[in-house]
Structures are given as C-alpha cells and as structure tokens.
Amino acid sequence: MQPSPLVTAFVVIVLSLAPRHADAQRRPHGHGATRDAEDDAEEAAYAPGFEAVRNGQREEALRLFRDLWTQTHAPRAVARMGTVEIQLGRWVDGEMHVRLALSHPEDRWVAAHRSDLEHALQNARAHLTELTVTSNVAGARLSVEGVEVGVLPLTEPVRVPRGSVRIDLRAEGYEPVWRTIVTGAEVSQEHVELASIAAASQPPRVHDDTAAVRSPSAPASSFPARPLAITSFAVGALGIGFGAVALVLRNAHAEDFNRANCWVEGDVARGGCDSDHAAVQTWQSLSIGAFAGGGALLVGGLVLWLAAPRAASSTALRCAPGVSAPGLSCALHF
Q1: What is the pLDDT of residues 154-171, one digit of tens each?
Q2: 143, β-bridge pairs
Q3: What's the gap between Cα 282 and its chain centre?
Q4: Which of 131, 144, 129, 316 has the alpha carbon at shortest distance from 216?
Q5: Class of domain 5-125
Q6: What homologous superfamily is domain 128-192 in, according to CATH?
Q7: Fewer beta carbons within 10 angstroms: which end of the chain, N or C?
C-alpha cells in the first residue's frame, strides 16, 4: 500500500532535515564550511523532536518544536510545528505555521526546502475551506471549535476544516448562540440572529389618590397548624356537647333518686335506688370528663390557630380625599 502524499511530505520534511554530519565533513573548509557547522549545531537542538517523531510521539514532538519556536523564532522551527500539526489533522494551525515559514524566503533553510514546504501546505489546504459569519449584532465575538477567531463584522472569511464545524457567537447583553454547521469546498456563509436578554420586568405602579395599608404576611410553614386547630375545635365541640348530654342524663337520674326518698341519713334506704345512684355517678363522671376534655381541645385549637402563619390578608385600609366635604375619607375593605 503506497503512503499518502501527506505522509510522504511529512517524512520528507521532518526526517530528511536531521543533521548531516557526513556531508559537512566532505565539504571544503572556509566560510561555507563554517555556516554548515553552525547549521549542524542548530539542528542538534531539534534532535529530541526528531526522535519523538520516529517513536510516533507526535504531541511530544509538537511540544518540543513549539518550545524551540518560542525560544528562537527560527523559520525552521515553525515549519516543523506546522508539519506535525498537519500530521495530527490540525489543518488550520498547520496551514498557518507552514505559511509563516514560507513568508521568510530570505532564510537559507526555507529556500533549500521550499518545495517540500509548499507540498505540505497544499495538503493542508485540501482539507480546509472558508466560512463567513454575519449577525444582527456588530461586535459579537465568533469562536470556531472553542477558539475565538474574530469579532463581527469579519474583515475576511475564516479558515475552517471541511465537514462539521461548531461555531459560537457571544455579545454582551445578548443570549449566546452555538450551532453545528457543515462546510464544503465552496465558501460557506452563515447568519446568526442574537436575541437580547430581556431586563427583569418591574410591576407597574398604580398612580391614584388612594393609599392601602395591608397586613404583612408571615413566612410559610410546613407544620399544618390550621388544619390541626380546626380538628381540635371540632372534637372539642363534640366533647362539650357530649358533656351537656351526660349532665342532662345525670340530673334525670338524680331527680328519680330524690323522688324515691332513697337517702335516709346518708344511706340508701330502698331497693332499686342503687341503680339510680350508680347512674348518677356514671353520668356525672362522663359529664365532667367530656367538659374537661372538650374545653382543653378548644383551648388547644385556639392556641394553634393563633400560632399558625397567616396568608397574605386581603384586608386593606383605603383613604381618599372627601367628595362631599373637605378632608380625608377612609374605609376598611375585607
């Protein structure tokens, strides 16, 4: 299987540019030999990058070449950065860096390898296209694949890879928009409408001649105080009612007991009075217990009702200038 032109260009540019000590030894001494020796000394700094490329460690090679570019700003350093980026499929960065190297035709190294560099540049451009983005908001910041590339309106199209591309558009005071578009060989165009972030709406003020004073609402509580108060009122009322019925029955048996003259110096005198006496005692005890329990429940219900948080009251005191007489008229509304 034949290697692709991209791989061939990468191997030629990166690996063929290693130091050539044997060639330097065969060259005659003099000024040219001195320059070759200087080139070989400079190339020695790239040896770790070459080794990383041979071992398939392209990210490491890119890091090493980038460090050399930062330190020296040598065209050969940025050229090697670009070739590794192209091999990694980072077409936009690769094109930019190889083109930057070619912008130094006066450099002896670039002149010697211009053909290889131009071939690598063609390979990168085969994977790129141009994108124009417009918007209704001037000054919006455009990002492609998470990297900011410009501010709208753009002065020139943006270089992007062919295929699916994610763009983001942001502007202060507007909702951000991001979308994925599909680019082709031709220049792609995309228009993005940004929507303004609506300001928090303020409730309208009522301008009239009335003034309202409303009772403040207490904070809501999860404890069901009011339902318990209502239940306590109901059960307490039933207890009071039962106590009243028990009291009536107690009095009825007491009247029967008294009519029969059952009491003789504190003792029960006749047969049949024992049942009336027992009924009086029973209903009296039930009456007392019902009154006590019902009263306690009513008091408890009242406490719960008063302690329960109140909802916003609709009660309001409204005042307005008098119509029939001078002064201020006020009314309490429920």
Answers
A1: 999 999 999 999 999 999
A2: 148, 168
A3: 71
A4: 316
A5: mainly alpha
A6: Immunoglobulins (2.60.40.10)
A7: N
